[in-house]
Amino acid sequence: DGGITQSPKYLFRKEGQNVTLSCEQNLNHDAMYWYRQDPGQGLRLIYYSQIVNDFQKGDIAEGYSVSREKKESFPLTVTSAQKNPTAFYLCASSPRTGGGFSQPQHFGDGTRLSIL
Amino acid sequence: QQQVKQSPQSLIVQKGGIPIINCAYENTAFDYFPWYQQFPGKGPALLIAIRPDVSEKKEGRFTISFNKSAKQFSLHIMDSQPGDSATYFCAASKGGGGSNYKLTFGKGTLLTVNP
After folding, report:
1. d(CA B15, CA B91)
2. Rounded distance, CA B110 to CA B40, Å?
3. What distance in Å separates the CA atoms of residue A92 and residue A48, rounded to the nearest whole number?
């Protein structure tokens, strides 16, 4: 089955520690995205990548970093600079945009990050 | 600046009722309006989407109504069932290349369908 796999499902971070969230997709999608979801809030975009070896900051990139070395993988690192990391993190992917039109994004089942 | 405003925050209906969730947007360059359904502990799942060249789209029990002049769109769920109880998000994005195609989400509506 094609889909997006996020791991781990739950993650705990100690003070001053960097943690990395994994996102793998086998949908052959070019674009990948990371969102943060807080209770009662919509999804806010952290970083996105339209193609391998390229990525752009979203609306709330401070305290986060990403890499896109392979088409199927887009890991997110939550650094110690992110002072409020407790949230539900969602990874998504979409096909390459065609004809200048947006394409649907498909989501994984998320990683819940908490501070110890 | 919230570019997509969603209402209501929560909604309770009886089984068989027709809940309606509304969204309003500001950016006239938006060209894609999806709705997502999210169950607790899961990622959002794409439910239905519309582009601004049509005023209505129906898929099964779910219908999107789109009013371009008012910059509003809404989700209607016909014959709602307890299994439809979830959080629903509207979103919008614009095409055109470059840094576009980012989805801007509303804050969500928690729908409860009572048996």
Report:
1. 26
2. 11
3. 9
Q: Residue B89 to residues A25, A33, B21, B22: CA-CA distances in angstroms?
A: 23, 17, 9, 10
Q: What is the pLDDT of residues B34-61, one digit of tens each?
A: 999 999 999 999 999 998 889 999 999 9
Interface touch B42/A109, C-beta < 8 Å: yes
pLDDT in tens, B101-115: 678 999 999 999 999
Nearest in space to B113 (alpha carbons), one of B8, B16, B35, B7 = B16
Distance CA A7, CA A40 (A): 24
**DSSP code per residue over A75-96:** -EEE-TT-S---EEEEEEEEPP
Which residue of chain A has the CA closest to B43?
A109
- Amino acid identity for residue B6 in this structure: Q
Residues of A in contact with B49 (CB under 8 A): 104
CB distance A59 to A45 below 8 Å? yes
The answer to whether the CB atoms of A105 and B49 lie below 8 A apart is no
Q: Mean pLDDT, consecutive 10-residue segments, chain A of 116 residues?
A: 90 90 95 92 91 93 97 96 92 79 86 92
| Chain A contact for B88 (CB, 8 A cutoff) | no
- Average pLDDT in chain B: 92
Is B19 an 8 Å CB contact of chain A? no
